[in-house]
Design a protein that fits this description.
alpha+beta, six-stranded antiparallel sheet, Beta-Lactamase, five-stranded antiparallel sheet
């Protein structure tokens, strides 16, 4: 960039965009266009980590063809650009327009399309929220681009702002979808299915589940799950006497497990590791002063779950607990109604015979 004033103006534009909308697509497109214009970039792309943590999928782009994006590998593999960026590295590669890249830094970009797209350089920086990588911000430039240290620092700062914006928009969208699900039905199963799907999608997780106490109060029965295999779901019963984690939950505590394979209180660590589960956040489902079950979310990567994520899931669990209670009351009223219909039918039949 030309001077400090230009940098300050770009930073202000991006901050203003983030503060103006909670719609994720609108926000991302506005950020990308501001960066593209200010840095004279050929293209700018935002990629987000998928729930399984094995690929970076395109979330928004400007200035580059879909054919090019489709041929950029999405998978996160050892040593590739995606893996390096997710590890916190800024990756800058120049000379991409040259067909002979002998001695250049290795990359896995589609070389034959680089010339047609007039791309000679790329810069990829991590999108991080509180130290957790959620994706990447990539800039593609012609041969004339210059990335000095102040510009690199500015791009990194913009990426961090964008990451916070993405996280906030996801939480807002998630709450909206959950609110829609909670008012869409009084049938418990479809209601829980929709809530879990929305939570997993918007928080960028692998899976989620809800378990409720059985009549004996000694086991937690699965009532809904999203993103978990049948093999994992049928691994065995969750028995409170064998699960210190669930004992803590039913005592009213929220539990964060950074690595389930190493936590002695988790009942099925080997099965969780085989399922690809690394971290778990679990919260109690409380109706008034009574805890009726637990809600769990699962991450494919080690995830510390900050206070923002914990408070969000606790809020969702509170709504879910109320919805469960309402659904149970509805089922009880419907059962009474059906019983009354049978009684009235029998009464009319008795009168007609008399």
């Amino acid at each position: 960039m030309n001077n400090n004033q230009d940098m300050i103006l770009l930073f202000y534009r991006v901050a203003h965009v983030i503060n103006s909308s909670l719609d994720l697509d609108t926000t991302l497109q506005a950020i990308l266009r501001a960066v593209q214009e200010a840095l004279n970039a050929k293209a700018v792309v935002i990629r987000l980590l998928n729930p399984n943590a094995d690929a970076l999928d395109v979330a928004a782009s400007v200035g580059v063809s879909q054919a090019f994006l489709a041929r950029v590998p999405a998978r996160v593999e050892p040593g590739n650009i995606h893996q390096r960026v997710l590890a916190g590295e800024r990756v800058h590669i120049s000379g991409l327009g040259q067909m002979d890249l002998t001695g250049a830094e290795p990359h896995d970009l589609p070389t034959d399309l680089l010339a047609s797209e007039q791309i000679d350089q790329m810069l990829a920086v991590p999108l991080q929220v509180r130290g957790r990588a959620i994706g990447s911000l990539g800039l593609y430039c012609t041969a004339g681009c210059q990335f000095d240290e102040p510009t690199l620092a500015l791009v990194q700062a913009i990426a961090e702002l964008a990451a916070i914006s993405i996280e906030n928009a996801r939480l807002h969208t998630s709450l909206f979808r959950i609110a829609q699900a909670l008012t869409s039905s009084l049938e418990l199963q479809p209601l829980l299915d929709q809530v879990l799907a929305a939570t997993v999608l918007e928080m960028g997780l692998k899976a989620a589940s809800v378990r409720l106490l059985d009549g004996s109060g000694k086991r937690l029965e699965l009532v809904a799950a999203h993103g978990l295999s049948e093999r994992y779901l049928t691994k065995g019963a969750v028995v409170l006497a064998k699960s210190p984690i669930d004992q803590r939950l039913l005592a009213g505590e929220t539990v964060v497990l950074y690595n389930v394979a190493e936590d002695p209180g988790f009942q099925y660590p080997a099965e969780a590791e085989s399922e690809g589960i690394r971290s778990v956040l679990a919260v109690p489902l409380r109706v008034k002063d009574k805890i009726v079950g637990v809600m769990r979310v699962y991450s494919a990567l080690p995830r510390p779950f900050t206070s923002v994520g914990i408070e969000f899931l606790e809020s969702v669990a509170g709504l879910v607990a109320v919805a469960i209670e309402n659904a149970r009351l509805y089922q009880a009223l419907r059962a009474r109604y059906e019983g009354l219909k049978v009684d009235v039918s029998e009464w009319y039949r008795f009168l007609s015979l008399g």
